[in-house]
What we know:
Blueprint: E1 2-6, E2 12-16, H1 23-38, H2 49-64, E3 71-77, E4 80-88, E5 102-108, H3 117-126, E6 131-136, H4 140-148, E7 152-159, E8 167-173
Parallel strand pairs: 5-6
Antiparallel strand pairs: 1-2, 2-3, 3-4, 4-5, 6-8, 7-8
Helix pairs in contact: 1-2
Amino acid sequence: MDDHLDTSAGAAFTLREPRLDDVERLAHVHVQAWRETYADQLPDEFFGERALEFRRSLWRRMVGDPAPGSRTVLAELHGEIVGFASAGTPVSPEQPAPASLELFMIYLLEAHHGCGAAQAMLDAVLGDEPAFLWVAAENPRAQAFYERNRFRADGLEKPDDRVPTFLERRMVRRRYWRRDWNFSAKRPRRALE
């Protein structure tokens, strides 16, 4: 996969599968995206050197030995990684899983919000398939993005194991729905007999 897409600002970003030589840059983008997204919700230890080493290890494993059925893409702009997304067979312990596909993560550096890369990454890893995800309960921007993509909160919330005050909310997209279907179109009425 190597898709070149134009943003509304005119700059082209590229979606592609990550390679082992991307691991270091992916780890840095991952920590930076978490800092931008969760700095007011999580302690500093989530953004330091230990967090960076954890992300390096995670990305080495994800890229070097991907799980069967996993789908991972990154977004590049002018040769720089600006975001990533990953989905696959559900790993969440809550059973039964509401769909056979789980969005594990999608992050885009704040400077690139609104350029279309997040939507392109989501479409690349999920398509229109039923899926579910966990999102921070205090992340209204992400929740609005998912709602635009037909995900709905199903009422299940859980605290993070390491930070019990950090709540995650499950959102589910239940079935296929084509964007070109127009349910508001008027249908012909039958004459009353």
